[in-house]
Amino acid sequence: MCALLALCITSCSGSGNEQRGKLLPAAKVCESLLPTKVAGELDALAGLREFTQRHPKAIESFVSRLRGLEASQRGQDDHELCRVTADIEKSRLFTVAIYFQWFDAKMLNPPPKQRGSKTTPYPLGVRSEAYDFGATIYFSCPLSKPTPDGKLLRAGLWTANTKLTGQAGRNARITILNAAARKIARQLGCLDTANLPEKFHKVT
Length: 204
Hints:
Elements: H1 2-11, H2 29-32, H3 36-46, E1 52-54, H4 59-69, E2 79-89, E3 92-104, E4 120-121, E5 127-131, E6 134-140, E7 151-160, H5 166-188
Antiparallel strand pairs: 1-2, 2-3, 3-7, 4-5, 5-6, 6-7
Helix pairs in contact: 3-5, 4-5
């Protein structure tokens, strides 16, 4: 919720506390977080090819912080990895924010039997879905001996003012988030068991 509130504040205006940096291609934002093919999804989502980034975190230091927060109450807060923006027009910003948080597996409710037409599930992690303003992936990433009631890592993505909409937009969101989750899981040493395949089925 905190991530969503912060996103709403910064995406509605091109002024304020937004720190301008040099324009970068999608493959270079967020410490080159996205593989080339996935970077194309960011281009399509925005309808643009150049972006600025706000307070990007180095992957290694971000992962180190996640490790330290696993057993901490603060680990359940949203921890933003990167925020990407691009000017669309005066007072409007295209925005994508990616964050992670530790999540108690016991608190993950079963998915509803019937989902709305604007929510799409995907075969990633323990549970994943995308909607018209974001995406989430819950995946197992035990840093110590796994327990039945252990923690999951929740990857989240929020967007604002996107050009790509509908199912195509949801597919782009989950593809971008999966690439970020894969990189973090690889650094944490849990990619082999996290169920985050590079290629997966997408509804068209």
